Amino acid sequence: MAFSITRDPIDAQAVYAAVAGHAEGSNPDGAVLVFYGTVRNKTADRVVRYLEYECYEPMALAQMERIAAEVKGRHAISDLACTHRVGKLEIGEDAMVVAVAAPHRAAALAATEDFISRLKQDVPIWKKEHFEGGAVWIGTPEDPQGASEPIREGDEVP
Amino acid sequence: MRVQVRYFAAAREATGLETEVLDLDDGASVGDAWTTLADRHPDLAPLRAQLRFAVGAEFAAEAASLADGQTLALIPPVGGG
Hints:
The structure holds 2 protein chains of 2 kinds.
Chain A: E1 2-6, H1 12-19, E2 31-38, E3 42-43, E4 46-55, H2 57-74, E5 79-85, E6 87-90, E7 94-102, H3 105-122, E8 125-131, E9 134-137
Parallel strand pairs in A: 1-5
Antiparallel strand pairs in A: 2-7, 3-4, 4-6, 4-8, 5-7, 8-9
Helix pairs in contact in A: 2-3
Chain B: E1 2-6, H1 9-15, E2 19-23, H2 30-40, E3 52-55, E4 58-60, E5 71-75
Parallel strand pairs in B: 1-5
Antiparallel strand pairs in B: 1-2, 3-4, 3-5
């Protein structure tokens, strides 16, 4: 499983190649799914100008590893890789690429959704949306889309 | 003991810092460190309800003990993907 953070445009082919490309005759996988997370031009009624991503890299990579290991325990997949971009991203650019290889597509599809959902909860990457008339850190109480679930005292923090 | 503190996103903007070094009594917890930081940075204190903590690369509870040389990170709501 390969994980990375980059400030440059993501080489999606390399993310794909990290989970595919088995030696001739040894490929166990009937499905390779590559997911691109891209920068959209609108959130609700806000016209987005650009996004700014920031990351705590060593922890982000460690959390991606942990989450991917959990996902692999829940779904019959062979491999998973993810590259996330940070810095300033323009509309239409790729913010994240996830690749999952599995013997069958159902597991690859489910594992991709599972990994991304968990990433959005626990991987320390932050997104500031710059829109016409302002800017907001996504998930904070200032985010018009709504804050993330509040953290309760004594939570078993995953 | 000395602990390095890392700030990101809204916490970085509230303190105007990316990092600072904190001197704490031996045996201090994450919560003790937070009390000191909230005193030091008035704009940081109101963010408490949305913050999580991490020691090294793992999330940590407020009751967790800190050790000399560790890195404590304040983790505002994340938004990757």
